[in-house]
Amino acid sequence: MTEVNPKVSPEELSNERPSKISKTLQEEGDFCEEEEEEKEAVDKSMKPGLQRYLVAVEYIGTRFCGSQQQLNHRTVVGVLQEAFHKFIGQPVTICLSSRTDAGVHALSNVCHVDVERVSKRKPGEVLPPHEPAVVRKAVNHFLQKEGDIMLTDVRSVPGDFHARFKAQERMYFYRLLNGPELLSIFEKDRAWHVSEELDLVAMQEACKVLVGHHDFSSFRASGCQSKSPFRTLEELSVLEMVSTPHFPSITEREQNGSNEEGQDSFCSKCKTGLPTGSISNDIMAGDSKNGADLGFGIRRRHRCYVITARSRSFLYHQVRLLVGVIKSVGTGDLKVSDVERILNARSVTAASPMAPARGLYLGHVKYELP
User: Fold this and answer.
1) What's 227's DSSP letter?
2) What are phi and psi of 239, to 5 degrees?
3) Is there a contact between 109 and 181 (Cβ–Cβ < 8 Å)?
4) What pLDDT is attached to residue 370?
5) DSSP code per residue over 134-203
6) How far is CA 202 from each of CA 32, 131, 199, 338, rounded to the nearest angstrom?
7) Residues 16-29: pLDDT tens digits?
8) What is the Cα–Cα distance from 220 to 133, expressed in whole angstroms?
């Protein structure tokens, strides 16, 4: 892979326009293309003694120059390969299910790695494979100093199980924090702060236009290497959620449910999302519309909107371009009718500027595991 300019920071990479990003930096694209490509990518045979592990990993994307390995840059793959090397004493190759751009976070990205367990007392003697729990604990030991990446799950899989091509579905989340107040330092680089008021209903209607099987050329950044612009969005939705971190007092819990319901009711609402305009959301937003005095030192919380996108695979920067249009509908810069016009234009120049990387999270990669 061509070396990237070392003067470019992860933040600068994540905020570039699609037309300015080189192909060598291409990330945030899940490229499940064709069966022929899949057959080429899956290993035909494995060396005796090798064990393939499927590994789930979480990380804070703003501290990496993307996921794919690059010379002289800190990346997810580079850090993982170094940790595995320290564990087993020999180099390994990490194959990710989904690439993520610089600044994009992962609640659960997935990769596979082949590990040969060799005796340290008798060099050359191959031992039975490590148990997955041992692999997880050992690699996390070497990752603990990093402080921004860790293994969350490990499973032994057959040698022909490919993390990228066996993925049946990928789910992304995008967080929008809405309100005039400055963003909390606890939310720095974790969400897109939109100060203008957002129309939740309009954003939900915009999502409906984009769900389904379409030519997403208008939501495909320049340099995309996928053979086809067609993708099927199984889900594209937006809900208002509880802004985090949030620690409700007894009084607040009582205002969000009867005494009989108690804390369980409040937590349930936090998980499922809340209807716009509810008492709960007015409290979460700090009741800023009514100008209520919250007390000295208590900040007004932002409204938190979460956009969910679910599909087998995505085009390069597709999710961030989708979010850019949905946000523009929310602020009133675009109408819902404009979304269909942009989709039919089949040109990325018709879309709104894409959303910044810092609000995007790879949430889950689904498999049918053996």
Assistant:
1) S
2) -135, 155
3) no
4) 80
5) HHHHHHHHHHTTTSSEEEEEEEEE-TT--TTTT--EEEEEEEEEESSSPPPGGGTTTSEEE-S---HHHH
6) 32, 50, 5, 12
7) 444 343 333 444 56
8) 39
Q: Which two three-digit tokens encode residue 89?
A: 């004493």
For the stretch 329-343, what's the b/e string if a residue is b when 16 or more beta carbons lie within 10 angstroms of its beta carbon? bbbeebebebbeebb
Name the packing angle between helices 318-331 and 200-210 (round to 10°).
140
H-type helices in the chain, by residue range?
10-14, 35-41, 76-88, 132-143, 200-210, 250-255, 262-272, 279-284, 318-331, 336-345
Active centre residues (catalytic): 101
SS3 58: strand
Query: What is the DSSP secondary structure assignment for residue 221, as one 8-state letter?
Result: -
Q: What is the pLDDT of residues 154-191, one digit of tens each?
A: 999 999 999 999 999 999 999 999 999 999 999 999 99
pLDDT tens-place string over residues 54-91? 999 999 999 999 998 888 899 999 999 999 999 999 99
Provide the residue type at 147 as one letter: G
What whole-number distance in Å separates Cα of residue 43 and Cα of residue 298? 57
Q: Could you read off the pLDDT of 30-39 as tens digits, one per residue?
A: 544 433 344 4
What tokens appear for 306 in the block?
A: 């979460």
Q: Which residue has the tokens 């490590």?
A: 130
| pTM listed for this prediction | 0.82
